[in-house]
Amino acid sequence: MNDLIALLLQAGFVWPHFLKPITSKTGFVWPTSKAHHFLNPTNQKNTKENYGFKPRRSAPHVKELVEFEDTMLNIIKSIEFKPNTHPNQLQTKLKQDIKDIQTDPHIFVKADKTTNYYKLKPDEYKILLDKNVTKSYKKRNERTKQDVTKKDKEIATNLKLDDRIELTASKDPFITLKDHKPDFINKPTCRLMFADYSCL
Fold first, then answer.
1. What's the pTM?
2. Long-range contacts (CB closer than 8 Å, 24 or more residues apart) made by 38-47
3. 116: which of 19, 56, 63, 183 lies 20 to 30 Å off by Cα?
4. What is the rounded distance in angstroms from the CA atom of residue 157 to the CA atom of residue 26?
5. Residue 123 phi, psi dihedral angles, 5° rounding
6. Containing H/E element for 176?
7. Using an 8 Å Cβ cutoff, are 53 and 164 in contact?
8. Whether residues 130 and 158 fall in one domain
9. Which residue has the higher pLDDT, 172 or 197?
10. Residue 20 and residue 79: Cα distance in Å, rounded?
């Protein structure tokens, strides 16, 4: 996937947002890594334990794939889209729904085990979030976070995985609403979710 994007950018291709899904799916059939290992077999076995972590570097360029790469690039670059001057009823409704969501001052909160979404005022959401965070966790200073990051780095270095593991990005926790619980409307309960778990 990264190889494909890099080649497109090198070719001066402007990447419209609607081509993202197409480019992403094309990346699944980009055989650079497999072709490199197939054409360059080695008797040396990798005895290093990687614990399932993949390398961050891309596979070397394979000259045998130049014609294939050029053809794939030309296919993507030659895709043309015509303006939709006669949208149907569904497209019109979707466009209006997107506009309404983008201009709505409420926060859209996903349900925990259903496909429902609920609109909450920012103050209401913050109260529920703080309540669920303080219920299970204590507030710590920035020093604690730095100590945890330092410890993770030491573990990764000792296991020789520091070239495969990225620093955990800081992301705010969020909540989902348990709308399947009794008396949900009067006493909403939530599930606290974290998106920044460490790889280690």
1. 0.62
2. 39/64
3. 19
4. 35
5. -65, -40
6. strand 174-177
7. yes
8. yes
9. 172
10. 12
